[in-house]
Write a structure and sequence with these properties.
This protein has 85 residues and is mainly α. The chain has one domain. The chain contains 4 helices and no strands.
């Protein structure tokens, strides 16, 4: 059974998402449902772990930033504390 929700996105992102969905012969609702099912069906610790198109990451977090090297715990702690200043 389907349930309805209301979401708000940047208009340009929606336009790009509609183009993508149309090109892949899927509705925007089903595309969104598919992405949510992928995100929730695995053990992703953050969005950077999820292999997803840049436009979806931009919807969720703003400009996409990918880490190619895992940070050490000490570096992550330092980064966290610096961000709180």
């Amino acid at each position: 059974m389907d349930a309805k929700i209301t979401l708000s996105f940047n208009e340009q992102i929606i336009a790009e998402a509609k183009k993508y969905a149309d090109a892949h012969n899927i509705s925007l609702s089903r595309l969104t449902e598919f992405l949510y099912s992928k995100i929730t069906s695995s053990d992703y610790k953050n969005l950077e772990d999820f292999p997803i198109s840049d436009w979806v990451s931009m919807v969720a977090e703003g400009e996409a930033h990918y880490q190619t090297k895992a940070s050490t715990r000490k570096a992550l702690k330092k980064e966290y504390y610096n961000s709180k200043k």
